[in-house]
Design goal:
single chain; about 290 residues; mainly alpha; two-stranded antiparallel sheet; 2 strands; about 70% helix; elongated
């Protein structure tokens, strides 16, 4: 287990260790606790729970042993597969607009990077897309946009089903928005919208419409308002509360450009606020998502 744990970059949770390591006989948790007792593994604690990491000298020793063993490729494959499934498991809305999920992903960003390297090498485009699209919110606020563009570009979109392609295109559009590539953002968001409609995914289609509208709120507010109205309708229809809240908040901002009465804009803000709730999605999150609603 010590050698297998060296595959983790920046430590791991117990769940990750159990998903990647395969000890002979004893359960992973017992082995990890034993390694902690022997001071070979350090246990750190944060608001999300416990994380376990090897001391750097121990990790380097473990990596040498793992690299020379017959199980090296299998351990790296399990590591990449586990983190792709973990990142994908948060679900679209949480990946797109939940700060708590972004914090969890950020805690394991080094593991995600290592997984991406393995998946690129293995040409596993679906799992690579699962990790890339999971980091959408993280890219908007705290991630390297160059890395984001690289991850999304590494995926062969033709190998993805329409629903998966739509979510990847949406993630790419978000990265291009952060990179100030507004033409690329609008083009990618439009492609994401078409793919999502074809796949019957109203939540992703609605999110794509909000991204398209962000680039039009000032130069073409009338068109932005049309897109946001459809976005809110689609999000409401499928119960995508967070996407609907962002669409309504952005509509309130667009309404200022259209010189709507304050009362009309206030009603939109109140509707958006009422939709906000849950961990990482407090009452001001829809407005923080836009960064300029006030």
């Amino acid at each position: 287990v010590l050698a297998q744990m060296s595959v983790f970059a920046g430590g791991c949770t117990l769940a990750a260790a159990e998903g990647v390591c395969t000890p002979a006989g004893e359960p992973v948790e017992e082995v990890v606790r034993s390694l902690v007792a022997k001071s070979l593994v350090v246990a750190d604690h944060d608001r999300f729970g416990s994380r376990f990491r090897l001391l750097e000298t121990v990790r380097l020793y473990g990596k040498l042993n793992l690299a020379s063993s017959a199980q090296s490729a299998a351990v790296r494959r399990r590591h990449a597969t586990w983190f792709a499934a973990w990142a994908d498991g948060f679900g679209f809305e949480d990946q797109w607009a939940c700060s708590e999920v972004a914090s969890r992903l950020r805690a394991d960003i080094d593991n995600l990077r290592a997984a991406v390297d393995s998946l690129v090498e293995a040409r596993d485009h679906l799992r690579l897309a699962q990790i890339a699209r999971a980091c959408t919110f993280l890219w908007r606020y705290a991630f390297s946009v160059t890395e984001a563009l690289g991850w999304t570009a590494a995926v062969d979109q033709d190998r993805l089903a329409p629903a998966d392609r739509a979510r990847l295109l949406l993630a790419r559009a978000e990265a291009e928005y952060v990179d100030n590539d507004y033409d690329g953002m609008r083009s990618r968001a439009h492609d994401a919208y078409r793919e999502a409609v074809d796949a019957g995914d109203d939540a992703v289609a609605a999110a794509a419409l909000t991204i398209m509208a962000q680039g039009l709120s000032f130069p073409e507010p009338e068109r932005a308002d049309e897109l946001l109205e459809e976005a809110a309708e689609r999000a409401n229809r499928c119960g995508a509360r967070r996407v609907e809240a962002v669409a309504l908040a952005l509509a309130a901002l667009t309404g200022r450009q259209l010189e709507w009465p304050m009362e009309r804009r206030r009603r939109l803000i109140e509707r958006a606020t009422a939709l906000c709730g849950g961990p990482g999605w407090d009452r001001g999150c829809a407005f923080g998502h836009l960064g300029m609603i006030h």
